[in-house]
Amino acid sequence: MHLNKNFEKSVENYTEHKLPNQWIDTLIQQKYFKLFVPKSLGGLELTLLEGTKKLIETAQIHGGLGWVHNLGAGANYFCGFFDEKTANELFSAPDTILSGSGFNSGTVQSKDSCYIINGAWSKCSGADHASHFTFNAVNEKGETNSYIISKEKVSLTPSWSSFGLKSSSSHSITIKNQSIPKEYLFEIGKQQSFSNYTIYCVPFEQFARICLSATFQGMTESLLNAFKKLDKVPLKVNINKAEEQIQILNNNRNQLAEYYDSTIDFSNQVLKESVNELGIIHAQLFETLMQLYLKGGMTVTEESNLIHWQIRDIMTAIQHYMLK
Hints:
Helix content: 40-55%
Number of strands: 7
Order of helices and strands: HHHHHEEEEEEEHHHH
CATH class of the largest domain: Mainly Alpha
CATH superfamily of the largest domain: Butyryl-CoA Dehydrogenase, subunit A, domain 3
Number of helices: 9
Shape: globular
């Protein structure tokens, strides 16, 4: 299954701070935010390899769309870290989309059967489209844990100041004296349910790096196609080089994803290093794209051209530590 709706790109949907609602609705309708959610909860229950192909697809369409899709589908992977009853409560709705932050910038207090949350977190990609937010907070004992909260209890503040991925609605969130059930605490990496779906056994950092690599590949393929349309002879050598690097990246990542889909032993240090080596390929590919930028002429500097904004998205995405 592939997306069957046309996504018409414009400068405006690169520069506005929110993606078109119809784009998000299309992803919801085709369960693209539920790549890694069990079928019993209305998800697609894909393997890691299958999921990465969907992530490439959306990023090929539009960098911001791919980024929001990645962060939303990737966070829905947390489904397996809740007990089955709570997971059903949180993830069975068709429009469940998670946004959140990994920063430890909040506090939590235990009170009877609930927790009281206070804090502020930045860079929550896809915030405008999220049904829930995940965050880290420190309790009275100085321990850091992860929690989830519904969007109704969260205040959004547009704060994304980077020059790329502007459409990713990567806002800041504030939570003031809001309560959540104690069942909304979860531990990343500790599978609590859906034991037959082994993707929840994959270490989160390796899972996230492989997924974000797929999104980065889709973004670079889209940019490369834009460079091809410039039809300049000086670009051809670097275009060929970039295509070769993309193929190497795709092959390496697919091998890793297939291994993670089939293994029950995740303690292999060589395997972890192989995932980290994807960052080397990302950097090499980025350098080739920057050579294309240098040879692209004034066209690529003009804000009225789509390729200019595609370049900005790539330059912003490569700064994410999961791509390094």
